[in-house]
Specification:
Helices cover about 25% and strands about 30% of the residues. β1 and β2 form a beta hairpin. The chain is globular, with a radius of gyration of 19 Å. The chain contains seven helices and seven strands. By secondary structure, it is of the alpha+beta class. The chain has a seven-stranded antiparallel beta sheet. It has two domains: about 140 residues, Electron Transport, Fmn-binding Protein, Chain A (Pnp Oxidase, Chain A); about 35 residues, no CATH class.
């Protein structure tokens, strides 16, 4: 059983191109800022004190992550499942990564930095969305940013309507939760769950 990535395997890869190496910058420039302004969805990567990783989806209207300046991003933290895994991780290790997606654009944007959590009232920006203020705001001090090439999204056909999966090919989530948790979760119709989620937006 393989327990770690072998250095010899990594060494077998060819050197990265000059563009792949040189594209990394230490700030959010005007292209990055425009991409974030267009993005309604991002993933937040964090690591706990023991080094166990976590990736959390984050979404809102385009530009829900606010660019305060070229070194600072504001990520509003809204009502979720209240596990607060990402927030607990950041309390132990402030380093985080964001990957931004824009529907219709095959490139993605990766931004790395150190984060701190502050009350929404302490932020000099109106982050109201869906008629609500965020519960708190994640402030990222940007250390690195770069655009990731389109290959993965092209291969996946992520934005291709012809590749969209019909909802009927996967079981209703009420059934999934019930079986996934071995009966701990109550049986609930998908329409009822989605209606509850809509109220929490």
């Amino acid at each position: 059983m393989v327990t770690r990535v072998s250095d010899s395997v990594v060494d077998d890869y060819p050197d990265a191109s000059a563009r792949a190496v040189e594209k990394v910058i230490d700030r959010v420039d005007h292209h990055c800022a425009r991409f974030i302004e267009l993005s309604p969805f991002a993933t937040l990567g964090t690591v706990d004190a023991e080094g166990f990783p976590d990736v959390s989806p984050r979404g809102g209207g385009p530009g829900f992550v606010r660019v305060l300046d070229e070194k600072t991003l504001l990520l509003p933290d809204r009502q979720g499942n209240n596990r607060v895994d990402s927030l607990r991780n950041l309390a132990a290790n402030p380093r985080a990564a964001l990957m931004f997606f824009v529907p219709g654009i095959e490139e993605t944007l990766r931004v790395y930095g150190r984060c701190r959590l502050v009350p929404a009232a302490e932020v000099a920006a109106d982050l109201t969305e869906f008629g609500k203020q965020p519960l708190s705001v994640l402030v990222m001090d940007v250390e690195r940013a770069y655009f990731h090439c389109a290959k993965a999204v092209m291969r996946s056909r992520l934005w291709d309507p012809g590749a969209q999966v019909h909802r009927s090919v996967f079981p209703p989530m009420g059934q999934v939760w019930r079986e996934h948790t071995r009966g701990v979760s109550p049986d609930q119709a998908d329409s009822e769950m989605r209606a509850e989620l809509a109220l929490e937006l």
